[in-house]
Specification:
Strand 2 (about 30) and strand 3 form a beta hairpin. The protein has a 10-stranded mixed β-sheet, with helices on both faces. The termini are far apart. About 25% of the residues lie in helices and about 20% in strands. With about 210 residues, it is α/β, with parallel strands linked by helices. Helix 1 crosses helix 5 (about 125-135). It has 6 helices and 10 strands; from the N terminus they run E-H-E-E-H-E-H-H-E-E-H-E-H-E-E-E.
């Protein structure tokens, strides 16, 4: 049965955030809010967490997982960013964008796209997520909480608790956070390629 955390959206309770971070460090799989929609998240090196996310969403090994990063400095540890891409990404973060970029050796091999050796990264503009990332001290391995055969992600913490009570270990509820996933921009080829249009304005990359 998943533990339920009711977290204030503007002033997250430090005790709750610390408990959630401790759970992630102990291999927990969590459902948590972001600035676009809810996501599933686990510790960066958690093979079990990644396998559980794949099972919940029925994903194949070509799926790009996302590293949810606290800031640009942390993002730069896990992906290679040249000068032109640096300016474009920097100008769009924090925000509702996911960027696909060549991974550094800091990224576990199992997370990489098998052919491209890339990974998705993003910096969220969400108070609760930022508080959790600050407490955790490392990125969250994440994927949009979009269930198979459903058109839109789940948006309510209580509904996620009801639907995924035995599939996740904790649900973080800080109110509704929308239904539109991030805009995904692939920079792995050097030029911006919009892979998915979503909550972030895609016009700046066209």
């Amino acid at each position: 049965m998943a533990k339920y955390f009711d977290v204030h959206p503007d002033n997250p309770q430090p005790r709750s955030i610390a408990q959630i971070a401790d759970a992630v460090r102990s291999e927990a799989l969590i459902a948590y809010p972001t600035d676009s929609c809810y996501a599933l998240g686990c510790r960066l090196g958690s093979r079990d967490g990644m396998d559980r996310i794949r099972a919940i969403r029925r994903l194949d090994d070509r799926h790009h997982f996302t590293l949810m990063c606290r800031d640009f400095a942390q993002l730069g540890q896990f992906v290679r960013v040249d000068n032109d891409v640096f300016r474009a990404v920097k100008a769009s973060t924090p925000g509702s964008y996911t960027f696909i970029l060549p991974a550094t050796r800091e990224v576990p091999r199992k997370l990489l796209h098998p052919r491209k050796k890339t990974v998705g990264v993003r910096i969220p503009d969400h108070v609760v997520t930022q508080a959790l990332l600050a407490e955790l001290g490392e990125p969250l391995l994440s994927s949009t909480l979009l269930l198979p055969d459903e058109a839109e992600p789940l948006t309510q913490g209580w509904e996620i608790k009801d639907r995924l009570d035995h599939a996740v270990d904790a649900v973080v509820d800080s109110g509704e956070c929308g239904t539109e996933p991030t805009t995904v921009v692939d920079f792995s080829g050097g030029e911006a390629e919009i892979v998915r249009r979503g909550a972030g304005d895609p016009s700046r990359f066209e």
